[in-house]
Amino acid sequence: MTSNIFTCPVCKELLFQSGNSMKCCNNHSFDISRRGYVNLLLSNTTSNHGDDKNMVIARRDFLNLGYYSKLAETISDTIVEYASDRSNILDIGCGEGYYTSLVKEKLNSCGNSSLISGIDISKTALDYACRRNNTISYAVASAFALPLADNAVDIVLNIFAPHEISEISRVLKDNGYFVIVLPQKRHLWELKELVYDNPYENESPIPDFNGFSLVQDTNVQYKIDLKNNKEILDLFSMTPYLYTTKPEDMEKMKAVDHMQLTADFRIAVLQKNNT
What pLDDT, on a 0 to 100 scale, did the predictor assign at position 96? Predict the structure, then answer.
């Protein structure tokens, strides 16, 4: 592990590294995996939660092609804009670390020494995240019970992932920032038209969270050209539609070997009000 802001899920005290474990002052101990992440889930810790290996690899393979690099660059620029030189930044639902790593690289290139950490409920995702960048602190943890102290974080990042605003508010400092990335209404519209008889637009309301004020709202829209069926299926495997699409509708995708799609994203920055 690198520098750490995670707390013990049992007693809430700060964790520190001791050999191949993370421990607290009360001697609760959590093993660091050979890849470098620590598992801070208390229940069913031997079970696999979240995305499985096939889904993680599909997302890694697609993102590595650079189709979402424009989004990643805009996210990174946004974080740099709001980060001080020594901010604590937390990526909730970081997956295999594509965006987390690029944010870290952008901060480094700007001479910013902020600490960035990531949590995800999938051990498999964090295994690949550590392979991508082992200078980032990663923990297996739930977005609904964040293993961090109150007021510990300057910026929370959340990209298409489940989150609990009360937990985000708890760990954010006063005047800290919550950067949330959402799909806009027409995101991947052409894919929906192909698969579904009655496609529908995404809901993308302006985030309105109690105790937060919207300070920036950015739309990122562009076209992407997928060159083969694997790219199409890998992209689809990254979306929630994977779980709800009927087998006969999946077959429609398997017959297509190229496609132009609309990438349509929203990046909203909300500031936590003083309490």
Answer: 96
